[in-house]
Hints:
The protein is an all-alpha fold. About 60% of the residues lie in helices and about 0% in strands.
Amino acid sequence: MILLTDKKDDGLTDLLEKLNIYLFHDNFRPLIEETIKDLYYSNDEVIYLLKLPHIDRALSKFREAEEKQVIHHAKNYFRACLKSAAIETTI
């Protein structure tokens, strides 16, 4: 089990591996990685809750919104989707 209490140089890499980011399509993987990286380095509490189903749900919400409107700040929007998915499913 990977604990994020001690952030080491390889902590982010371990987290990305734990979350199986490689399973996502190449079109979305960079967005997912960058968003998780931002959450990790900002020490956002949601990073400790994050699991694969949260990412999947966030991506689903993001794609649904993308079909209805143009998303100008994709990373910020996806970050909100990811945080929302993690919080909604842990309550």
